[in-house]
Amino acid sequence: MAQSAPDTARKYDLGFARWVYENVEGGDKLSMCMQCGVCSGSCPIGTEMDHGPRKLFMMIRAGMKEAVLTSNTLWNCTKCYRCVVRCPRGVPVTYILGGLGTKAVEMGYVKTEDTVRFSKAFWWSAKTFGRTDERLVTSRYHFSGGFGEGVKKSLANLKIALGMFKAGRLHLGAPHKVKGTKNLQAILAKAQEIEERAGETER
Amino acid sequence: MEERKPGVYLCRGCGIDEAVSVDDLEQVAGTELKVPTCRQHDCLCSDEGVETIARDIAEGTVNQAIIGACSGRVMTDRFQFNGTSVIRANLREQVAWSQPAGDENTQMLAADNLRMGIAQAAKTVTPEASAEGETSSTILVCGGGITGLSAAREAVRAGHAVVLVERSDTLGGWAAQWSKRMPFRPPYRDPQDNDVAALIAEVSGNASVTVMPDTVVTRTEGSPGRFSVTLSQGGAEKIETVGAIVVATGWRPYDASRLGHLGYGTSPDVVTGVELEGMLGAGPVQRKSDGKAAKTVAFIQCAGSRDPDHLPYCSSICCAVSIKQALQIVEADPEASAFIIFDELRTPGTAEEFYRQAQEAGVIFMKGKVKGVDADLKVVYDDELLGDDIPLEGLDMVVLATGMVPNSTNPEAAAAESGADQLVDDIDPEAPIAIAGYKGGNGDGAAAEDAAQTPGDGGEDGNGDGDAEPALPGGPILNLQYRQGPHIPILADGFADSHYICFPYETRRTGIYTCGPVRRPMDMAESAEDAAGAVLKAIQALRNAGMGASVHPRVGDLSLPKIGLDICTKCRRCTVECPFGAIDEDENDYPILNPSRCRRCGTCMGACPVRTINFDNYNVQMVSDMIGAVEVPDEFSEKPRILILACENDAYPALDMAGINRHQYSPFVRVVPVRCLGSVTMLWISTALEKGFDGIMLMGCKSGDDYQCHFIKGSGIAKERMEKVGETLKSLMLEEERVAVEEISIADSGHVPNVINSFADRIVEIGFNPFKGF
Ligand SMILES: Cc1cc2nc3c(=O)[nH]c(=O)nc-3n(C[C@H](O)[C@H](O)[C@H](O)COP(=O)(O)OP(=O)(O)OC[C@H]3O[C@@H](n4cnc5c(N)ncnc54)[C@H](O)[C@@H]3O)c2cc1C
Ligand code: SF4
Ligand code: SF4
Ligand code: SF4
Ligand code: SF4
Question: Which of B650, B514, B668, B639 is nearest to B99 (CA)?
Answer without folding.
Answer: B668
